[in-house]
Write a structure and sequence with these properties.
The structure is a homodimer. Chain A has 16 helices and 16 strands. The first copy, chain A, is of the alpha/beta class. The first copy, chain A, has 2 domains: 2-261 and 366-390, Alpha-Beta Barrel (TIM Barrel); 268-350, no CATH class. Chain A has an 8-stranded parallel sheet. A 3-stranded antiparallel sheet of chain A has the order 1-2-3. Chain A has a 3-stranded antiparallel sheet with strand order 7-8-9. In chain A, helix 7 (150-170) runs parallel beside helix 8 (188-200), helix 8 (188-200) runs parallel beside helix 9 (217-227) and helix 10 packs antiparallel against helix 15 (350-360). Chain A is globular, with a radius of gyration of 20 Å.
């Protein structure tokens, strides 16, 4: 993995994996359950997606890592011969599962699917990801919650560092890259400290965790800005769970190389479609008779073959094809957006591109961000309630 | 449309339409709402589907025929440049809508979507289908219900004949073929009479209606057998709403050329997958670790790229890709099945093929048939209840 840099802190890079080279900055579509929702791997390839994210937590619970390993690993299982990054499951244990008890050894939790009890340790997180055979594995971290006291955040961050070391020691395969995850909540000192400690462990790549929880963009930006200088120039930097066009621009500007988010695929399934002028909702009746494509500037399958009126009809009629065509469009949009990001970095015009894009782009993702935080908090309350019942 | 015949009553034919020639016997996938559920038109073309069915009733209610006409017709709207047959909406008015009042002029009904009131006449059914621009239009008919008295069935059948004449008179476009629909309930004399009267009206093609309501196969077979001799040899014969592999074999044997059914796509979405040995349910846990394809003899996208275990996982995880891959497989199965049907007719070996196939095929469609009738009756009761409320 070699990196070069350009104007501002934005930089170009190449992630060299056993399943192809990935140009960065890159946006990775999310396929938690071994499928990017609504599209086939062949359709992803047609867009020319080079790398996707999948999830150890989901696949461990269903169908089980052993099954995937016996079938030849995750790439073969889902017929995807390009790069895959797997999240360790840390974030999901804290955001999806019930009854979490963390101690130094690991985290005990109940499956959100069937309530069964499981114990995830740093060593197991690596063993499972080695079973999946992803190109990039993530260390098991502890993502602090909104309700945590400063002491709890500090404790979680320090434990994350000890777990990162254990993950490194547990690794047995040499064809997979293991990334460390910087935590530290929204505390400036702890963020810096976390970046410094992880940098000293010499991971082949670094992720910034805990920054996709719906905090205001300014705060998130600040945390990214003060973390990045502590990470080695030559290694890739991955901002976890962040992927709206605007957030990507801010991240790239600060030297982030990799992004992932369910946003483009999730909003697509609700009729939210990205265009060069902002996000539209195709369910809106103003698209009822529209003969033009969703985005006439777009050359994806959806835009080159279908009118906005047809998409509108499919959504109103709740037809499955709606979700596929909308997802194809949004992923194509993101792919082309990243292509432009990289081209402008190469030309030294990234800052102008960023301002130009944001000036013409009517955002509604800020609302989504707020709604996400709201939902997270509600889930949290619900989980707390469940925990009470379970105990 | 030219026909040649071969062993038994089974026969080969070619349906020549403005959107390509269709070899018969043919199975038409159903895309009532201008999309075959779960797959894109490009995917249908990859299977080499030549003709699909769409529905005047559904498209009239949503998005409205005027919108489709203004956007260049149904072919352009849904990006399908091959043949389309549209049902007139007669069957759907009687099976889906509420508050039906039939008089000589037409049928008054309430939309199953929003309760709005509509009045469909034979003339309007043709005008709407001309707006859609389908290759084959169907006359507006009256499909008797299970509860109808013999007098009501006879009355409905005779009115169907008068409406058929009005449909012929209403037609203005010469690039669309209008098919008449034989009714007559399960009464032998009325079936014969209906076939004879419609034959005298000289339609370019004939459909057998009212035979997909879940009656025992023997009775349906009998009705087909006594109707066919009254229809002209040189014109295509279409058995409406029938499309299980077994039913197709029995139909072809009696000289039927065209079939349609939601069965292969609907059962696919429930995990029911056709194989040469019968239908399996991929949700069953015996497929959990199965490395082989659903049907190793099949060369479709699904079978050539994915294990049964992956399909099983997608269904258990309720992932959208499950429905797409299952639908692609079942439609590929049906396409290849019809290819074999035609090849065996050409070779004069159809009867042997039929017996061979049925001997190796474990059916579960008979259960589906019974369940369909049950559901139809329940809907009927529910509608009657609603009608009471509405009035």
């Amino acid at each position: 993995m070699i990196k070069t840099s350009s104007d501002s802190f934005a930089r170009l890079g190449w992630l060299i994996t056993p399943h192809g080279t990935v140009e960065t900055p890159v946006f990775m579509p999310v396929g938690s359950q071994a499928t990017v929702k609504g599209v086939s791997p062949r359709q992803l390839k047609e867009i020319d997606i080079r790398m996707i994210l999948s999830n150890n937590y989901h696949l461990y619970l269903r169908p089980g890592i052993e099954i995937i390993r016996n079938l030849g690993g995750l790439h073969k299982f889902m017929d995807w011969d390009r790069a895959i990054l797997t999240d360790s499951g840390g974030f999901q244990v804290f955001s999806l599962s019930h009854l979490r008890r963390i101690d130094e050894e690991g985290v005990k939790f109940r499956s959100h699917i069937d309530g069964s009890e499981h114990f995830l340790t740093p060593e197991l997180a690596i063993e499972l990801q080695e079973g999946l055979g992803s190109d990039v594995m993530m260390a098991l971290d502890i993502c602090p919650s909104f309700q945590d006291t400063p002491e709890q955040v500090r404790e979680a961050t320090q434990r994350t560092h000890r777990w990162a070391e254990r993950c490194l020691k547990a690794q047995t395969r040499s064809d997979q890259a293991l990334f460390g995850i910087v935590q530290g909540g929204f505390n400036e000192e702890w963020r810096k400290e976390s970046a410094g400690i992880l940098a000293s462990l010499d991971f082949p790549g670094y992720a910034l965790g805990g920054l996709s929880l719906g905090e205001p963009r300014e705060q998130t930006q600040k945390m990214i800005g003060l973390t990045v200088p502590y990470l080695p120039q030559s290694k890739p930097r991955y901002l976890m769970g962040v992927g709206s066009p605007e957030d990507i621009l801010f991240g790239v500007e600060q030297g982030i190389d990799m992004f992932d988010s369910v946003l483009p695929t999730r909003v697509a399934r609700n009729g939210g479609l990205y265009t060069s002028k902002g996000r539209i909702n195709i369910r809106n009746s103003r698209w009822k008779e529209a003969a033009q494509a969703i985005d006439p500037a777009c050359h994806c399958y959806t835009c080159s073959r279908f009118s906005a009126a047809y998409l509108h009809h499919l959504f109103r009629a709740e037809e499955l094809l709606a979700y596929t065509l909308a997802t194809l469009h949004n992923l194509s949009f993101m792919y082309n957006f990243m292509l432009k990001v990289r081209a402008n970095i190469a030309e030294g015009t990234f800052k102008a591109f960023k301002e130009d894009f944001l000036a013409g782009y009517r955002s509604s993702d800020e609302q989504v961000r707020i709604a996400q935080k709201q939902k997270w908090l509600e889930n949290q309350e619900q989980r707390e309630g469940n925990n009470g019942k379970d105990q």
